[in-house]
From TrEMBL:
<feature type="signal peptide">
    <location>
        <begin position="1"/>
        <end position="21"/>
    </location>
</feature>
<feature type="compositionally biased region" description="Low complexity">
    <location>
        <begin position="28"/>
        <end position="63"/>
    </location>
</feature>
<keyword id="KW-0732">Signal</keyword>
<feature type="region of interest" description="Disordered">
    <location>
        <begin position="23"/>
        <end position="84"/>
    </location>
</feature>
<protein>
    <recommendedName>
        <fullName>Right handed beta helix domain-containing protein</fullName>
    </recommendedName>
</protein>
<dbReference type="InterPro" id="IPR011050">
    <property type="entry name" value="Pectin_lyase_fold/virulence"/>
</dbReference>
Length: 334
């Protein structure tokens, strides 16, 4: 469980972020800092370089991009989003050249968004992002902490696109992105013990990269269901847990999740790398590639009788996550 986030009262002197061509607020009243950043093509995955710019942001009503809930993609798809093959740090997160405008945290160690339909575009949030509104969009942004839409036992909803989540160094044991109802594409999660958290309905995660860490006593996971709901799509992501030591699994879906599609992912590390148990409805695990011998105990520990399991393969990869060879089929084990 996440720790409760404090709510601050914003003073009357605070300003409202607006679009260049309008006055619709993109979030709660906040102040911007005078120093902005530009993402460098050589450091897009981990840092920013200083530049000077005017604070800008776009404000439109958000809408969820088309996903794959209506039908799983063909087995073995290896490219998607900005990535020619499987997602890497180079083709996920804030796009190179994006100018980021820093904001001042307005809710303790978090930046809180409470307006339905708000859009955050090109923002640098030097803490956590707390979403307490529906249909929020976050894109081309850097969040140095975690992102959550669950607050006081209420789940909200948002879309996050082409954004970087996590501190530039160290390890935050909290889940990077979660957890009530969200759509993610092109997201880079770095330096988090858990990558994605599934605790609600209608969650889709596509074309994203997760590099996991751990602190002593953690049970690190790439994606974990926690009192999960219905309709989870995990398609074409890279989940790398090889550098973490206090671990469970890159794919750990064991808690009350119904109707699950796990397709076309590249998976590395973990105790048992793919763990899918206790799920109801239609459960599909297809077209995934597992890095051979990257696990501690075994590649799979799942309830095979409840899973439509097909075309999953053991592979080897290079340092750029390019598949270099196919070792053989990956059967389901329970």
């Amino acid at each position: 469980m996440r720790h409760a986030l404090p709510i601050a009262v914003v003073g009357v002197a605070a300003m409202v972020l607006t679009a260049c061509t309008g006055s619709t607020p993109v979030a709660d009243p906040v102040s911007t800092t005078p120093s902005d950043t530009t993402v460098s093509s050589t450091t897009a995955a981990s840092s920013t370089t200083t530049s000077t710019s005017t604070t800008t942001s776009s404000t439109t009503t958000s809408s969820k991009p088309g996903g794959t809930s209506q039908g799983a993609p063909p087995p073995g798809r290896s490219g998607g989003g900005r990535c020619a093959a499987y997602p890497t740090p180079a083709c996920t997160g804030v796009p190179p050249g994006t100018k980021l405008s820093a904001v001042t945290l307005n809710s303790g160690d978090s930046y809180r968004v409470s307006q339905d339909g708000a859009v955050l575009d090109g923002m640098h949030i030097p803490g956590n992002l707390l979403i307490t509104a529906h249909n929020v969009t976050v894109r081309n942004s850097q969040i140095d902490g975690f992102v959550t839409d669950e607050y006081e036992n209420v789940d909200y909803s948002y879309t996050i696109l082409d954004s970087t989540v996590g501190p530039a160094s160290g390890c935050d044991s909290q889940p990077g992105v979660g957890e009530g109802s969200f759509y993610a594409r092109g997201v880079l999660i770095r330096n988090h013990g858990d990558g994605f958290r599934d605790s609600g309905n209608d969650i889709e995660i596509h074309d994203s990269y997760v590099h996991l860490c751990s602190n002593p006593g953690d049970h690190s996971d790439g994606i974990q269901s926690y009192q999960g709901g219905h309709n989870l799509v995990l398609d074409h992501n890279t989940l790398d847990q090889r550098d973490a030591t206090d671990i469970t699994a890159p794919i750990f879906l064991t808690d009350l999740t119904n109707t699950v599609s796990v397709t076309n992912n590249l998976v590395a590390g973990g105790t048992y790398s793919i763990q899918v148990k206790g799920a109801g409805g239609t459960v599909v695990v297809r077209g995934n590639r597992m890095v051979d011998k990257s696990w501690v105990y075994g590649p799979v520990e799942s309830e095979c009788g409840n899973i439509q399991w097909s075309d999953n393969t053991l592979v080897t990869i290079d340092s750029n996550y390019t598949v270099t060879s196919t070792v053989g089929p990956l059967p389901c084990h329970g």
